[in-house]
Write a structure and sequence with these properties.
CATH topology: 2,3-Dihydroxybiphenyl 1,2-Dioxygenase, domain 1
Shape: globular
Structural class: alpha+beta
CATH class: Alpha Beta
CATH architecture: Roll
Strand order of the largest sheet: 19-10-11-13-9-14-17-16-15-20
CATH superfamily: 2,3-Dihydroxybiphenyl 1,2-Dioxygenase, domain 1
Number of helices: 5
Radius of gyration: 19 Å
Distance between the termini: 33 Å
Oligomer: single chain
Order of helices and strands: EHEEEEHEEEEHEEEEEHEEEEEHE
Length: about 300
């Protein structure tokens, strides 16, 4: 039994020496940045008050936020871990409990945030296919510009000991394994973990832990965009802006998402994705191979930077 069952990922936090430069990148990426005090917050089109935080400092990853279902859950975690429930000084307010995982990653568990007004998404005509042609007597124009990020979908963390980190996150937050990456029957290097929301379908993974050769640290964070046309428009915007591409466009095997990876000005990898798998708690867990992890259904093979 876990202490609580988190509902979703809430945000990722970074440090950077130039908030204006980060804001420019985030706009090209399809987020809406705003400065509050000495920090830069960026939201998407969905109800979350923010998805990405940057604070002044030397470039680096500063933590991940997970969303609990209630303030009572925060009290449960705080009592078990010997920490305090504190006000969350950020857009949307709420409360937070701050923990540190076995590799020193800061994990902020939040609840009680006020929802932000949702932003309009582009109204694009439907797709025609051989199976059905709902768009008739009308042209399709997808538009240009940045993608429309809706929400944060998952974060990937490199860890030093997969089993130790897996136990830490499952014992506290109730994650379920979707796919475990096994090198042999005796040794696994990581797992895609989804939230346990009972009968409510949830993303194939909210957190991916991987025991990587490069050692513990941030791997990437992934943001859901409106649809495939939106992802491709975002790709063109980032390319035209001279941003640094990493991998894409393609479709993963595990999770099935269409993906497009880019790097921020300080080398942190952020992903656009759309059309991912959804599972309930009843769908159980699977074992996969390293080849499955790196494979694509279509698109380019992963670059060395993704290994």
């Amino acid at each position: 039994m876990s202490l609580i069952k988190v509902e979703d990922i809430a945000f990722v936090r970074f440090r950077a020496p130039d908030l204006a430069e980060m804001a420019g990148f985030l706009e090209d990426f399809g987020l809406v940045p705003q400065t509050a005090g000495e920090k830069l917050y960026a939201r998407g089109a969905g109800p979350a008050p923010f998805l990405h935080v940057t604070e002044p400092g030397e470039p680096g990853f500063a933590g991940v936020g997970l969303r609990a279902s209630s303030l009572a859950d925060l009290e449960v975690v705080a009592e078990a871990e010997g920490v305090k429930v504190e006000p969350l000084d950020a857009p949307g307010g709420g409360q937070v409990v701050r923990l540190t995982d076995p590799d020193g990653h800061v994990v902020e568990v939040v609840a009680g945030q006020a929802a932000a007004p949702e932003l309009a998404l582009p109204a694009r005509p439907p797709w025609n296919s051989a199976a059905g042609r709902p768009r008739q007597r009308a042209v399709k124009r997808t538009g240009v510009g940045a993608a429309h990020v809706v929400r944060l979908g998952h974060c990937v963390l490199n860890v030093s000991n997969f089993r130790a980190s897996e136990a830490w996150y499952k014992d506290r937050f109730g994650f379920i394994t979707s796919d475990e990456i096994a090198l042999s029957p005796e040794f696994s290097i990581g797992a895609f973990l989804r939230c346990d929301r009972g009968d409510v379908p949830t993303d194939h993974h909210t957190l991916f832990l991987v025991q990587a050769p490069k050692g513990p640290g941030f791997n990437h964070a992934a943001f859901e965009v409106a649809d495939l046309d939106d992802l491709m428009a975002g790709h063109d915007r980032l390319k035209a802006a001279g941003r640094t591409p990493e991998w894409g466009v393609g479709r993963h095997v595990l999770g099935s998402q269409v993906f497009d990876y880019w790097r921020d000005p300080w080398g942190h990898t952020l992903e656009h994705w759309t059309d991912g798998d959804l599972f309930t708690a009843a769908d159980g867990s699977n074992t996969a191979t390293l080849q499955d992890l790196l494979a694509v259904q279509w698109g380019p093979a992963p670059p060395p930077t993704m290994a």
